[in-house]
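Task: encode each sequence below as C-alpha cells.

Item 1
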Amino acid sequence: MTLPRLARTAPPVGVGIVHLGLGAFFRAHGAVYVQEAVAASGGAWGVLGVSLQSPDTRNRLDPQGGTYLAVEQGPAGEVARHVQIVQGVRVAPEDPGAVLAAMAAPGTRIVSLTVTEKGYCHEPSTGQLNPDHPDIRHDLANPLPRSAPGFLVRALQARRAAGLAPCTVLSCDNLPDNGRVVRGVVLDLARRIDPALADWIAAEGRFPGTMVDRIVPATRPEDIVRVAALTGWQDEAPVLHEPFRQWVVQDDFVGGDRPDLGAVGVQLVSDVAPFEHMKLRMLNGTHSALAYLGYLAGHATIAETVADPAFAAFVRRLWATEIIPALTPPPGVDLPAYAGQLFDRYANPAIRHRTWQIAMDGSQKLPQRILGTLDSNFKAGRPSPGLLLALAAWVTYVSGTDLQGQPIDVRDPLADTLRAAATSADPVGAILALRQVFPEPLAARLDAPLRAARAALMASGARAALTPA
C-alpha cells in the first residue's frame, strides 16, 4: 500500500528567521519552539532553511512543502508532531545570491545557525577566526561566500547598504560563549573586508548567547519506515528526539524583536554562561567520554554503554569527582540532581544515539567539552583520571584503528593530521603539539598524565581501564 506523502496543512507564515544549517537538531529543537511561539502569540516568524553544503535536506523537504514530523521517543512509546514552521529550503552552493537576498530582506530579523563547531572556521583552542581556512580565503576574495561567517558578513553588508538595521545573529551550536565566538569571527572577517562595516556591526549588531539541549539521534532508513507505519504518512525527512528539551537564550535582540519564546518555556536570561558551562561539561563532556571509551569497548549506542555497570559507575564518578567540582551552578540548579537526570536520559532505550555519531569532529568539540574541565582541575590541584582516560581513548580512536586492530572511520576536519600524529613514534607528544586543539600551557600539563592514561588503556582495554586501581 502506498501511503500519502506528508504535505502542508497550515497556511504559510511570513519569513522572519533564516536558519543556516537546517539539520536534524534545529528541526527537532529550535523550529519546534518557534512554531509553538507563533501558535501562542503570532508574528511573522516563519523559518527559511539554508543548507551550506548538500541539497539532500531540500530535496526531501520540498515535496512536503517544507514540513516534516518530529517524533518524540520516550520509554512508553513514540509521539509524532507535524512541524510546519519551515517555509522552504535554499541550497547555498547552488545560488548563494538568493541566500544573501533572503538574509538581507527587510522581513528577516534573525539569522540563526547550527553549523557545528567546524562551521565557524575558527581555531577551537582560541575561538578566533582562522584566516587560512580555505572557505575564508575564498570569502575574502569573492563577494558570493561559501562559509557561514562569509554569509553573515556579506548579508550584514547588504543590509547596511540598504539602510536596514542588522539582523540578530543567534548561534545555536554547542560552543562556549557561542554568541561571543560568532561575533568575533564576524567582526574579524568584516574588518578584513571593510573596517567601516565592522564598526557598524560592532555598534548596531546583536549576538546573543544560547544554550541548547535535546538528544537528537541520526535518522536511519528503517526509522522512516517505522514513522510511516506509526502515522500513516510518508515522510522522507522525519526527525527523532528525546522528550527532554531546554533552550536558554540571552535576551539581547536588535530592537528587542524576537518570537515570544518565553511563552513556550525558553529561559530568557541576561547571562547564559553558567548554563552553557554546565551543559557542555556535564552532558557533552560525558557524552564524548562515553562515545570514545564505549566505542572502543564495543558498545554501539550511549544507552547500551551506560547499561554496562562499569560504564554507569564511571560516568557517575566523572560527574561527582571531576566535573561538578569545577562548575559554578546556574541560579536554582542542583548539579547532582541534574547529573541524575542526565543519566536517565542516557539510559532511555528508545534513543539510539550512536557512539560513532557523537565521536565525530572531536578536534572541534573536545576543547570546550573536556579540555576546559581538565584545565580547571589542574589549576585547582584536582585529579582527573576519568577525563584523562577519555582523552587517551580519543588519541586511540583518531589513529583509525581500534584496540583489536579493526579500522575506524574517523570523521573530523583534521582527520589526516590526527591520524598521522596518533600513528607516529610518539602519539601523545604529536597530538599535544597540535595547537589547533591544545593551547601550549595545557599541553605541557597534560603530557605526563595523558601518557600514563594511554598506557593503562592500551595495557588493559577500555572497559577494564575504567575502574580505579
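Item 2
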Amino acid sequence: MFGLDTSLTILLLVCLLAAAAFEFINGFHDTANAVATVIYTNSLKPWAAVIWSGVWNSIGVFAGGIAVAMGITNLLPTELLLDTNIYHNIALIFSLLITAIVWNLGTWYLGIPCSSSHTLIGSIIGVGLAFALISPNNGVSYVNWAKAKDIGLSLLLSPILGFSLAILLMYILRQVVKNRLIFKEPLTNDPPPFWIRLILLLTCTGVSFSHGSNDGQKGVGLVMLILIAIVPGYFTLNSDKFTIDVAEHVREYKSIFSKIDPNELSVDEKFEYEKAQLNINHFDSLLKTGKSIEHFEVKEKAQLRKDLVFLGKSTKILLESKQLNLSLANKEKLKQEMAKLKSLTEYAPSWVILMISLSLGLGTMIGWKRIVHTIGEKIGKQHLTYAQGASAELVAASTIGFSTWLGLPVSTTHVLSSGIAGSMVASKGIKNLQAKTIKSIAIAWILTLPVCMILSGGLFLLLRWML
C-alpha cells in the first residue's frame, strides 16, 4: 500500500482508523448541540432527531469545502511533517490522535460540553512546541503562529458572540412576535404547533449542516496531516494537477507581480515583496525541470509546498497594503492566480472526505444523551422554551457558517452552549443560569488547550524516544 512495507502499512491503517474514531467521537460529542433543542421542545423524537442531524452533518462535510481543513494542516510547517525518519512522523500522529480522543471521551463521560476544535488544535500546537525543544535549529518556529493566532481569536470570540447575539435575538423576538406561546415552556409531551416545530427543525438542520461543514473539515485536515507525514510522496502535492497548467498560473502570477513598484511599499512590505519574488522564482525553477507532479522527489515536493505556503503569506500581506500600486482588476487577478497555485497543496482526495463524512454522521447517531442532558437541563434553571431553542440554534448556525466561509475553525459546542446561556439570561437575567454547570464548562474551556498541548507534547517526546 503506497509502497510501504507491512508494518508501516498497518501503522498507517491504524492512524486512519484512529482519525475516523476521533471524528466519530466528535459526532456524538457535538450532536447534542444540534438536537438538544428539538428534543427538549418535543419537536422531534430523539431517534428521529439524531438520524436527521447525522444525515445533515454528513452533507455538511461534502458541501463545506476544505478551507478549514487546510487551516488545520497549515498549523505545522512542512519540515516537521516531512521528517526523514518516518517513525518520528508516526510518533507525531499518534500523539495528536491519542490526546484528542482521550480528552474528548473524558469530557463526554463527565457530560461536559467541550470543544473538539480546542482539543485538536491544542494537540497540534503541543507537538510543534515539543519538537522545537529537541530541534537543532533553534531559530526555526515549528508552529505556524500567524495561523494559530487567527484560530485562537476565532475560538475565543465565537462563544462571546454566541452569548451576545442570543440575548439580542431574544430581545428582537419579544418586540416583534405577538404570539407569546413561543416564550413558554412545553407543558406536555405533545409536539408544538406546526410553525414552531418547522422553525426548530430548520434551526436544527442549520446547526447540523454547519457543524459538518466546519468540524468535518477538521477531520479532513487531520487525515491529510497523517497522509503527508507517513506517505509524503503521494500526498504532499495534488498529483492530479498537470505541471503545464501550474506553470501557466506561475507565468500569469509573475506577469502581474512584475507591475508592482517596490519603492512605494513600506519597509516591511518591501521585505514581503522580496520574499515573494524569491519564492515564486524558486518554485518556477523547480517546475522547469519538466517533471510531472508525481515524479518529483519527496524533498522537491516539500520545497514546492514550502514555496507556496510562504508565497501565499507574502501575497496576502501585499494585497492588503494601501501602498500597493496595482489596479483593482490586477489585484483580483493576482488573488485568483494565487488561489489556483495553492490548489496544488490545498486539496483532499474524495475518499478522505467520504471517510470523515461517514464517521461524523454515524457518530452523530450514538452516545448523544449525556451532553443533551447538560445542554437541555443544566445550563439554565428553567426548561428550554421554543424561543430560546430557536434563538440559540439560529445564532450557532449563522456563526459557524460564517466562520467556515472565512476558513476558520470554531467550537460548535461553545457557540451553542453560550447561545443557550444567552437566551436564558435574556429571559430572567443572570440568576437564571446554573452556576455549577457554567463553571464546569468554563473550566473545560480554559483547560482544554493547555492540557492537550502538554499531553500531546509529552507523548510526542516519549514516543519519539521509543521509536
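Check on item 2: The two ends are 22 Å apart (CA to CA). The chain has a mean pLDDT of 83.
End of task.
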